[in-house]
Amino acid sequence: MAFRRQIIRATLQNAKRNSLAQLARAGGRCLSTASPSLSAATADAPPQLPPFDHRPKPYKGPSAEEVLQKRKTYLGPSLFYYYQKPLNIVEGKMQYLYDENGKRYLDAFAGIVTVSAGHCHPEILKDIVEQSELLQHATTIYLHHAIADFAEGLAEKMPGNLKVVYFVNSGSEANELAMMMARLYTGNLEMISLRNGYHGGSSNTIGLTALNTWKYPIPQGEIHHVMNPDPYRGIFGSDAAGYAKDVEDHIAYGTSGRVAGFIAETIQGVGGAVELAPGYLKTVYDTVRKAGGVCIADEVQTGFGRTGSHYWGFETQGVIPDIVTMAKGIGNGLPLGAVVTTPEIASVMSQKIQFNTFGGNPVCSAGGLAVLRVLDKEKRQQHCAQVGTHLIGRLRDLKEKYEIIGDVRGRGLMVGVELVTDRKEKTPAKAETAVLFEQLRELGILVGKGGLHGNVFRIKPPMCFSKDDAVRSLKETHRYSEEERVLPRPASLSLSLGILPLTPYALFLPHIIPPSASESFFRSPLNKVQQPNNLGSDLHSQLKELIPEQQERLKKIRSDYGKVQLGNITTDMVIGGMRGMVGLLWETSLLDPEEGIRFRGLSIPECQKVLPAAQPDGEPLPEGLLWLLLTGKVPSKEQVNALSKELRDRAAVPDYAFKAIDALPVSAHPMTQFTTGVMALQVQSEFQKAYDQGIHKSKYWEPTFEDSLNLIARLPAVAAYVYRRIFKDGKIIPMDDSLDYGANFSHMLGFDDPKMHELMRLYVTIHSDHEGGNVSAHTGHLVASALSDPYLSFAAALNGLAGPLHGLANQEVLLWIKSVVEECGENISKDQLKDYVWKTLNSGKVVPGFGHGVLRKTDPRYMCQREFALKHLPKDPLFQLVSKLYDVVPPILTELGKVKNPWPNVDAHSGVLLNYYGLTEARYYTVLFGVSRSIGICSQLIWDRALGLPLERPKSVTMEWLENHCKKAAAA
Ligand code: NMX
Question: Which UniProt keywords apply (predicted)?
């Protein structure tokens, strides 16, 4: 509450300051009684826009408010607008825009990088008007010179054999067509695009786009998103080789080996002006072509000289694509797009009729040709180089001065300025960006915003933007920085003034983010989970704040959508283990068949990036993941450290739990011993105690929280006891108070190699949760729904985990691999391996570690373990064998014809890593899995209680019932 009050106070102060400053400007008066920052603002009169010889026409149309109302009534709710108070732009001239009151704005975003030559450029207008007066439309079923002239003009601008032009109406359409060409030409289906790329929002191109804020949950097609070669945020920095290798690996492991094509922007537009690591496209184009694919350059934003150094963006990477797509700047505002390719690729399109009603219509073609001519005549490419170099240089100077500027990048007039709250962690300064964005508008400067977090200013003005304009926009940014309204000089100063935490981000955000997208924005992982975490420093108080709003949310979903159908249940589903049936609420994670698991919206690589680690660039700490699963927020390092300590403080295991284990024969399976220990811990259940004392149901979550944290804290000691009892003569190693959860677990097991500590952190993190339908999670949830306490529920879950088709596969894989080595030696050839796989299958067994009930791609948990192995044990013979299996097994399983996912799952890799560091006893592995799983199952259990989820009780039917029902349905 106090925080909200602070936000409102800060907003009001800002608003007051702004309006006073405006008053002062309007009246030219000096407000001598103003606050120090206000007097600074007024004394230093704002620099004016450079003089410009144009008078806007008097505007007689409806007001901004009326337009907005009409838009809301008659246009789709997904339309969004910039600024808290949307701008009614009614006229444009070159690099300037005018609002309904005749106020002039410097346009540094060009109608989203579309107005290339300048708003209403007279020469272009003249050609458009002349053509419109003669003929607007007839289509290509008749001849017209405009389309042919324009195609010729465009082809002349292209290098190599890129000579055949197709005209369409937009960038999305261009990319649709390019993708279709790639598939038809190569005969392959799978496309590769870059994460953080944007290629359109139509139902096919949405699959190519790789920014969740723009993607509706519809089928995305055969598309793979590879690592973004982002020099600022990417894990390999500017080293293109690492990212290029990812493409090679992705083709080798994630596709059939043959692909249709690869598409990339050369400077990502919507993604925040991210320039690809130098040399990247060269290597990747080679790789893709070797895999049978074609290379597509998306020049929708980078083309036509905007980058300054070159006419086309791809030329900055020294490559010639097979297909080039373009739109936006090509028409200077006309709805126009094009695809240019080689005659050979184009020939595949002639097998059917390919036609576009408006593509290349006379008006657009005349306008497009005029754009080409004007850009050349006015030497706009050279101009972009000069002005852009100056602008980027000056912005880099600012970066030296202001901590908050994390990165200045781009080329020519395609510039990005990324704001971060701290340079080391590169935490997106979303709130600060939003505030500065509003204030720049107040000053008459319109920039764009981009990047997944909306923390990158996109400066991509009409190409006639002058040096004066550049200076002016810099001055404003700088002046406001100096006034400490938004960007106080060193960021630490702003923190000490308390300004950054007070930014009215929450108040601005809904106006900046698309209203319909805003929901997905709030759900979108990095935006949501990285919001400042101001709720309190411990988990319990965070939950206390979060629970009421989530209870309300669930209530609303039920009342608003309670009757909405989520799919049809078929007989197949009833008999087939309920596959594909949506029937459980599970908040902590969601599994996408193609993409793998997301923890509270974050993929595994994203978690590796944003969750606090014990070492620089190290693996995430499982405590951080627990925090994330419980609160939906990424914790700070301090919060994670506090949680580590809290778990250590809760970790004492009562002696009778060990005695219960000791009552079993040492030969009992480790999972049996482990579950026995967990059952013994139940004696201390706080939930059971509170229930016996008649606790009110609204308070159930609190003792559940206590039990869950105690259980998670105590499991490593119980699990380590089982290990040491069975395999190390019962010599117990006590906990080390200086270590975090994962490292301590490794230590108590007897492994103190720092790399094993890292492995354990990774292992626990990735095994923690896998949405709710898997056997262990589902069992825990089901048992808990009867109000069994967390110990009873989790013990039940462990019993499910101990099945060979589920968690026991952890042990089965290594035992199977060892049996391969025993029979055929370590240097087994692929042919021998194939024979061994067939032998396993023919003996009626499954190949452990391959296949999945939901996933339809290689498990990302497998991939991150593979990356760990490549980093730390690339030469290990068993790892080499696992790699070989990746080549050998999937084709065989595919050949069986019934396996839905022939690719490896998490279990295919974990044993080899553990074995390498000395944890060789495969029979024990599922216990490690069990410890990890407690984090996900208990987190959800706390929410089950907080949300008051009911007893789970699906309807079952008999075969007779099914027969009767289906017969009746068929007759009807
Ligand atoms: N080896 C041989 N046959 C397989 C395999 C495999 N790895 N995977 C699936 N099949 C068979 C499966 O047994 C079934 O055959 P049938 O119709 O004769 O009963 C058929 O292919 C169709 O199965 P799917 O629908 O593809 O898979 P399902 O959802 O039934 O099962 C698993 C998923 C994971 C149980 C299955 O793939 C499997 O048994 N894999 C090996 C064991 C394993 O690695 N388990 C760990 C899972 C880890 N994880 O879930 O993350």
Answer: Aminotransferase, Mitochondrion, Pyridoxal phosphate, Transferase, Transit peptide
Q: Is the shortest distance between the CB of 898 and ligand 1 below 6 Å?
A: yes
Ligand 1 centre to CA of 188 (Å) is 27
Ligand 1 in reach of 899 Cβ (< 6 A): yes
CATH of the domain at 388: 3.90.1150.10
DSSP 171-204: HHHHHHHHHHHHHHHHS---EEEETT-----STT
**What pLDDT sits at residue 49?**
78
Triad 515, 526, 553: Cα angle to 5°:
55
Residue 530's pLDDT is 55
Q: What Cα–Cα distance (Å) separates residue 513 from each residue in 84, 208, 367, 531?
A: 10, 22, 33, 15
> Is 850 strand, coil or helix?
strand
Q: Are residues 758 and 829 in the same domain?
A: no
Residues 70 and 28 occupy one common structural domain? yes
Q: What is the pLDDT of residue 475?
A: 61
pLDDT of residue 1: 34
The pLDDT of residue 528 is: 53
Tell me if 853 CB under 6 Å of ligand 1.
yes
The domain of 429 spans: 2-117+381-527
- Looking at ligand 1, which residue's alpha carbon is closest to its atom 29? 853
Q: Is the CB of 907 under 6 A from ligand 1?
A: yes
634 and 682 fall within a common domain: yes
Angle at CA of residue 846, ends 842 and 849, nearest 5°? 140
- Please give the pLDDT value at position 434: 86
Distance in Å, CA 914 to ligand 1 centroid? 24
Q: Whose CA is nearest to atom 16 of ligand 1?
A: 898
pLDDT of 537? 63
CB atoms within 10 A of CB 692: 9
CA nearest ligand 1 atom 11, residue: 899
- Asked if residue 595 and residue 470 are part of one domain, the reply reads no
- Identify the pLDDT of residue 436: 86
| Residues forming the active site | 806, 852, 907
Which residue minimizes the CA distance to atom 27 of ligand 1? 853
Sites in the chain below the pLDDT cut of 50: 1-45, 480-525, 527, 532-535
Q: Whose CA is nearest to atom 40 of ligand 1?
A: 851
How remote is the CA of residue 573 from the centroid of ligand 1, in Å?
Answer: 16
pLDDT, position 34: 28
Q: How far apart are CA 66 and CA 757, in angstroms?
A: 62
CA of 819 from ligand 1 middle (Å) equals: 20
Same domain, 655 and 773: yes
Q: How far is the CA of 761 from the CAs of 457, 624, 768, in angstroms?
A: 36, 10, 11
Indicate the pTM of the whole model: 0.54
Residue 510: what pLDDT? 26
Q: Is the distance from the beta carbon of residue 766 to the nearest atom of ligand 1 less than 6 Å? A: no
Whether 302 is in the pocket of ligand 1, judged by its Cβ within 6 Å, is no
